[in-house]
Amino acid sequence: MVERRTLAECDPAIAGLVRDETERQEFGLEMIPSENFVSEAILEACGSVLTNKYAEGLPQKRYYGGCECVDRVEEIAQERAMKLFGAEFVNVQPHSGATANQAVFESYLTPGDTIMGLKLDHGGHLTHGLKVNFSGKHYEVVAYGVDENTHQINYDEVRALAEQHRPKLIISGASAYSRAIDFQKFQEIAESVGARHLADIAHYAGLIAAEEYPSPLPFSDYVTTTTHKTLRGPRSGMIMAKEAYAKDINRSVFPGLQGGPHMHTIAAKAVAFLEAAQPSFRDYAKQVIENARALSAALIEEGFSVVSGGTDSHVLLVDVRPADITGKEASEVLDSIGITANMNTIPYDPQPPRVCSGVRFGTPALTTRGMKAGEMKTVARFIREAVDHRGDQQKLTSLQNDIRSLSEQFPLYRHRLV
Ligand SMILES: *Cc1c(COP(=O)(O)O)cnc(C)c1O
Predict the structure, then answer these.
(1) Which of 31, 116, 253, 329 is the most buried (most CB within 10 A)?
(2) Are 264 and 293 within one domain?
(3) 60 Rama class: left (phi>0) / alpha (psi -120 to 50) / beta
(4) Residues 244 and 314 in one domain
(5) Which of the residues are catalytic?
(6) Which residue's CA lies nearest to atom 4 of ligand 1?
(7) How confident is residue 336, by pLDDT bands cut at 50, 70 and 90?
(8) Distance, CA 238 to ligand 1 centroid (Å)?
(9) Is 19 a domain residue?
(10) What is the count of structural domains for the chain?
C-alpha cells in the first residue's frame, strides 16, 4: 500500500523546510525578476499522480501503455500553447529553459558551428554562449553587446558582426535587458546572412502572451521559453518553431536529450496556458509593466540610476554607484531586511562580476500579490533607506518590520501556514 501519512508525519525535516519556505515567500518582498507565484490550481497539477506515469514519445506515439489520459493532457497543453502564442508548432516536453535551448542547438547545429548571442555581462543568458556552459564549450561564440551610451541593443553592430562572422544561429532574448527587443530585425539579419534565428523569450513570455511586449511569433525560426517567469506557470520550458522544423525538434528533445516527459508538469503547464489566456492575465501583465515603470521612476527619484533610463518590461537594472555601494553589498543588505533581489553587472561595469555595480529588480511576483504603483514607491523608499543605513541594525530591524507589515496586506499562501 502507498504511504498515506502526510508529509509532516512521515518526514518532519522536509515538511518543516517547506513550511519555512512558505513563510519566507509570504512575508518577504520577492523582487527577483525571474520568479513568480503560481496558482493553487497549478500547485495541485504539479502535485498530482501524473508524476507516476512514464510516457516516452509523443501523444498517440508512445513507447509505453496506459497513456490515454496523459496523451490528452499533452495534446491540450500543445493546443493551448499554440493558440496563446500563435505558434505553428510546439513541443511542451523540455524540463527547463536551458534544456529547451540545448534541444534547439542539437536539432540543427554541429559542434564547432558559430552562434551569436548577447554578452552575458550585458544581460545575456548562460545558454547563449558562456564558456563553461554547453553553448560555449561546443560552439564558437560571437557576442554582441549593448551600446555604451544608450545601453540598448545596437542592431547595426549585430548586423556587422553577423556579416563578418557568418554564424549559423543568432540568438535574441535576454535575462537582464529591460527594453523592447526588435525580434523582426533579428530575423531579418539572420536571413540576410543565411543563419537561423532563435528568440529566447524566457523572461518576457507572459508579457508576450498578453500582447504587452513585442512577439517574435510567427516569423522566427525558433522560440524557446521557460514557463515559470512572467508566464506564471510551473518550473519548466518549451519550444515553438516553424512547422518545417517540427520533426527535428521533436527528435532532439526525445530521444536526443530527454527520456520520459514530466507529465505532472505538462499538466501544470496546460493550466498555466489556460490562466494566461484569460482577460485577467492581460490586466496582470499590464500592471507588471506599470509597476516596473513606477519602481524605476521612484528609484531614480531616490537618487539611483537606472540602466537605459527606464524599462519597457517587468525588469529593471539599477546602477547603485550613486549611493556609494556595490551591487553585492546592496543585495546583501536588502536580503537581510526581506527584499529578495540579485546583484547584476551593469553594461561596461567597472567592478568584477562577483561584486557588480548593479542590482536587478523585477515586478512579476509583487504584482501577482496585488501590489500597484503606490506600493512600488514605498518599496523604493525602503531600498534607499536600507542602503543608506546599512550599518545601523536598529534601522534595519525597523525596515524589516515595515516590510513584513506591507507583505501582510497582500496575502499569498498564508492558509498553507496554519
Ligand atoms: C531563465 C532563462 C533561461 C533558463 O531557464 P532555466 O529554466 O533556469 O533553465 C534561458 N534563457 C533565458 C534568457 C533565461 O532568462
Answers:
(1) 116
(2) no
(3) left
(4) no
(5) 54, 56, 200, 226, 229, 235
(6) 97
(7) very high
(8) 11
(9) no
(10) 2
